[in-house]
Amino acid sequence: xxDQATLAVRDLRVEVESKPILRGVDLDVAxxxxxxxxxxxxxxxxxxxxxxxxxxxxxxxxxSASFDGRDLLALTPDERARLGLFLCFQYPTAIPGVTTVNFxxxxxxxxxKEMKAREFLNRLKEEMDELRIDESFRSRYINDGFSGGEKxxxxxxxxxxxxxxxxxxxxxxxxxxxxxxxxxxxxxxxxAGPDMGVLVITHYPRILEYLRPDAVHVLHQGRVVxxxxxxxxxxxxxxxxxxxxxxxxxxxxxx
Length: 255
Ligand SMILES: Nc1ncnc2c1ncn2[C@@H]1O[C@H](COP(=O)(O)OP(=O)(O)OP(=O)(O)O)[C@@H](O)[C@H]1O
Ligand SMILES: [Mg+2]
What we know:
Bound molecules: adenosine-5'-triphosphate, magnesium ion
Order of helices and strands: EEEHEEHEEHHEHEHEHEEHH
Shape: globular
Strand order of the largest sheet: 6-9-10-3-11-12
Largest sheet: 6 strands, mixed
Strand content: 25-35%
CATH class of the domain at 6-91 and 164-248: Alpha Beta
Helix content: 25-40%
Structural class: alpha/beta
Distance between the termini: 43 Å
Number of helices: 9
Mean pLDDT: 92
CATH architecture of the domain at 6-91 and 164-248: 3-Layer(aba) Sandwich
Radius of gyration: 18 Å
CATH topology of the domain at 6-91 and 164-248: Rossmann fold
């Protein structure tokens, strides 16, 4: 393995239930960089995230995706996680019967990063304090009955404990109050750096104000149609997608 791994996506084509969704995505994210992926509802952002993690519903029909020089598409989801990929879900699911503490221990074990009980509990406490997550969440079933914002912070807690090499955050900023957004953004900033790259999928420039991404990409109808810097996100906020993607907007945002 090299020190700095890169996610390289080339002409990636993906179908869901025989419907083409991704129609040739090209994207490069190096381990030490922060990239933002924006785009209208239904443009394929979550599809790309799920495909990179190996969700079986998303069928690759062409192109390639590699991380650290390894062909991701040939690996199981478990192997991709062991390689250092992590996805914060847009809609985190509850796992009744599995406490946060047990989930994280099991996840660390399966990644080959097992720690002694005391070290684990100390680190968990530190990370929960940083993310302002109440201690009671340790023994609650993961995401079960968590509020929307609590689920998102719980995702960042997993990220902080598992320390992947590349984190994909799918709308982790949606539904957060202003203080929680700052806590989450600061949490991501604390982890991002030479050891962790970030692909942040978002509809809002607000989180990007904190994260200051190296690049912003716009996905439209399953393709990256333009890329730029932070100012691209500001332009989208001000003028909408229409001037960027022209008259080809298939569906208005919000459908
Ligand atoms: N599991 C699925 N079954 C059926 N259709 C799907 C599935 N996943 C994605 N699609 C379809 O693929 C298209 C892209 O969806 P995707 O969730 O990737 O969009 P998105 O860019 O993440 O949108 P949003 O901004 O609303 O989260 C949509 O038309 C969606 O209905
Ligand atoms: Mg989505």
